[in-house]
Known about the structure:
alpha+beta, CATH 3.30.1330.60, Immunoglobulin-like, four-stranded antiparallel β-sheet, four-stranded mixed β-sheet, 7 helices, 29% strand
Amino acid sequence: MKNYLVSSYGIDASRITTKGQMRPPHASGTRATPQEDLDLVREENRRVEVLSTDNNILKPVMIESTQSEPIDNDLVIGVRTSSPIDSWSMTVTGEGTNQTFGPYRSASQRIDAKPILSGRASGNYTATVTARTASGQTITKSQDFQLVRRELPPVTGQRYSILFEFDEARTVQTYEQFLRTEVAPKIPNAATVVVHGHTDKVGLDDYNIELSNRRSQETQRVLQDELKKLGKTATFDAYGFGETEMRAPFGNENPEGRYYNRTVMIEVIPGS
């Protein structure tokens, strides 16, 4: 790796120190890692880590891209009961549709609305939620709702991403500095900021949902704090997708994909 950096980028070899050790400084896996995931973390720990005191070397790379689908395309479902919920699922019927979503264990869930509409401009539906409480009680409730497809003109927004170490919800200092000095100053006053957290597929589903939520909330906290210092306001929508495959930014098949899925994506939409 040192030879590659020196020969490819012309870095002075005296600036690079190498060291070999049994486990990387930020090793994947914990004592709570499920048995079936141990091979995945062993594979990840056979790697080289690049550490530096220069934040310019480690800060994220800017990528410009076009997103064809709006980011606010989700149906948001919340479940509130007087008893703790163990799990819940939802069936949507109407307009020739009969689809079941779940089971879920978080109090709220974001569901892609496109499959429900199935190409229609609008539709009337019934959502039936069946929840199972921690005590074993089953609660069922139905509610009618309408979905309408909105064709909005394209909006130029900004997207940023930051990475987290394995099983960590606090961003490393390099990324906190990036949020404060690069992202927050570029958020227009009264903008909408959508923050969605993700994890790799190592670990239990429930834990990964909670971990991704903590990652998104930590990111929101840093940005809100910096925006307050700058005298700006923004509307935040922060949530976590856990290891949900359909929402994952990268594939989970290899160590690199799992590494990049330990992320929070930040979408900035101007107030207009």
